[in-house]
Amino acid sequence: MPHSAAARARASARVGATPQPGVRPRWWAELTLVVLIYAAYSAGRLLARDDGSAAVDHGLAILRVEKALFLNAEHPLNRLFTATPALAVPADFVYASLHYLVTPAVLVWIFRRRSTHYRAARSWLTISTLLGLVGFTLLPTSPPRLLDARHGFVDTMAQYSEYGWWGGEASAPRGLGEMTNQFAAMPSLHVGWALWCGVLLWRHARTPLVRWLGALYPAVITLVVMGTANHYFLDAVAGALVMAVGALLTGPAIRAADRLRAAVAARFGKPPAPSRAPAPIPTPAPEPVPSHTLPSTASPEPSSPSPSPASSSSPAPASPASPSSAGSPDHAPKGTRIPGRPAPRPRASPIVSGGCETSAGDRFPGRRTRGSTSGTSSADDTPATAR
C-alpha cells in the first residue's frame, strides 16, 4: 500500500481519474444524485423480472460450468452454514445489512475526508452499478437458494428468519419481498460494492487496522453470499469484473462530462462583459534641465588667428603660482579652482570665443577654451583677455 502523497495520486489515477482539486461538491446535490442512482437500481431490478424458467436455466448453466471447472465452492460452504447456526445467523445479518450500511458510509467518508478523490469514487460506483443493471436485464439468473431442493442448496435466511427482520424472500424485510427482484444474481453487486469499499479503504485510510479491514471485507462478503446460497462463485467473479470495467471507464466518463459541461456553458451561458479600456495615464512633463548642464551644440571653435607684432611684444602676465598672487584668493587668475570654494556658476552674458558669439548655455561650467591653460594661449602665451 503506498503511503506517500505521490503514490496515492498514482493509485487514484489507476482507478480511472486523477484527483480533482478544488471546492468540495455540494452535499445536497450529491445526496440527490445518490438517491436517483439507487432508485434507478431498484427500478432496474424490478423491470428485469422474469417468470422464472429462463432464470432457472441460466442458474443451472452456471452451476454446470463451475462443476466442469472444479469451482463449485457453493455446496460445501452452504452445508457448513446450514449445519452451524453460529456461522449462518451472523452471515445472514452481514448479507442483509452491510451492503446498505458500509457502502454509503465509505461514500460519505470519502466526501468529507478525501474530497479530492470523491468525484472519481462516486463515478466509479455509479458506472459499475449501471453495468450491473445491464447484466440483470440481459441475463436474469436464479440464485442457488431458488433452485429445486434436489440440487442440494438450503436458503439459510429462510431457515433462520426468526433471528432477524428478513423473511423467506431474499434480504428484504418481511412482507416486502415483492419489492425486490430475486433473479438479479448475475453479476453480484454485493461483491462488487464490497470490492469498491475495500479498494478505497485500502488506498485512503491512514490506520493499518482500517486498511486491513477494507482488504478483508470483499473476501468476507464473497464467502457470505455463497454460504447463504444467494450467489454462485461466478456471480462474484462477474461482480469483480464489472467493477474493473467501471474503473477503466471512470476517467473517460469524467472527461466527457467536463467537455459536455463546457459545451453547454458556451452554448447557453452569458457572454462575458466587454472590458473597458483603462483611461490613459498622463505622462508627467519632464523637469526643466539647467542650461549649464546641456552639451555644447555650437560649431567647433576656429583656430586662433596669427598674433600681430604688437601683441607679441606684450609682456606675459604673471604666473598663478607667482608670490604676489599665491596668498590672495581674490587675485587668482580667472578659471583657477580654489580648494574649499564651490565652482562659480557661468554668467548669463554672451561669451565671445574666436570671433563666434554663442549663448551662455552652450558652454560647460569650468570648461576652458581649446588649447588654453590658466587663461593663457598655448600658441603665443598671450593672455586670453588681450585677444
Largest sheet: 2 strands, antiparallel
Quickly give the structural class. Answer: mainly alpha
Termini separation: 102 Å
* Residues in helix, %: 40-55%
Order of helices and strands: HHHHHHHHHHHHEEEE
What's the quaternary structure here?
single chain
Task: Give the uncertain stretches in residue-range form.
Answer: 11-22, 297-330, 351-356, 369-387
Mean pLDDT, all residues: 73
Shape: elongated
Strand order of the largest sheet: 1-2
Beta-strand fraction estimate: under 5%
Number of strands: 4
| Radius of gyration over all CA atoms, rounded | 50 Å
Summary?
The chain is mostly helical.
Structure, described:
The protein has 387 residues and is mainly alpha-helical. Helices cover 50% and strands 3% of the residues. It contains 12 helices and 4 strands, in the order ααααααααααααββββ. It has helices spanning 5-15, 27-47, 53-68, 74-83, 85-113, 118-138, 156-159, 189-204, 208-227, 233-268, 309-312, 323-326, and strands at 351-353, 356-358, 372-373, 376-377. The strands form 2 sheets. Strands 1-2 form a two-stranded antiparallel ribbon. A two-stranded antiparallel ribbon has the order 3-4. A hairpin with a 2-residue loop joins strand 3 and strand 4 (376-377). Helix 5 crosses helix 9 (208-227).
